[in-house]
Amino acid sequence: MTSPTLTLVRGDITRQRVDAIVNAANSSLLGGGGVDGAIHRRGGPAILQECRALRASRYGKGLPTGQAVATTAGELDARWVIHTVGPVHSRTEDRSHLLASCYRESLRVADELGARTVAFPAISTGVYRWPMDDAARIAVETVRRTGTAVEEVRFVLFDDMAYRAFAARVG
């Protein structure tokens, strides 16, 4: 296992042609706003159906923060969606280990699936208010340090500010 190639894309994660798209999900796995809502809308009802089945079986209380689980990608241009729950940023408690875990666990699930290309959003930077520069640092460092068979990690960034923050870390 080696470190994957890191690619930056400014755009819409739901338009990526990759093996797996990572969803910045909420713990309910039942859809939400931001990236989560966009993935559920474009991917169609098959994703929600599998998420409901996960809730009914293994994740009755929801997916814990920092963990990851896969479903079909439905109508997306991918084979799978890997759902991970990022932490809400706190000024009084260091939760960076949970944010790093989102990336590590998503790569672990990708390896179990046999995914070679994975698209990540900037996890926890929307309504969970993680500062973009710090989120980029944690994401890039974690992916570089995690042994994986994934060949390409594509960070798909919604706006110029996010793109610049990740570009500063990727080098």
Automatic annotation (TrEMBL):
Macro domain: which residues? 1-171
Q: State the Gene3D superfamilies in the record.
A: Leucine Aminopeptidase, subunit E, domain 1 (3.40.220.10)
CDD domains, sorted:
Macro_OAADPr_deacetylase
Lineage: superkingdom:
Bacteria
What single Pfam family name could you report for this chain, choosing any that match?
Macro
Q: Where are the membrane-spanning stretches?
A: none
- InterPro entries membership: Macro_dom, Macro_dom-like
The protein's name is: O-acetyl-ADP-ribose deacetylase
Provide the species name. Answer: Streptomyces thermogriseus
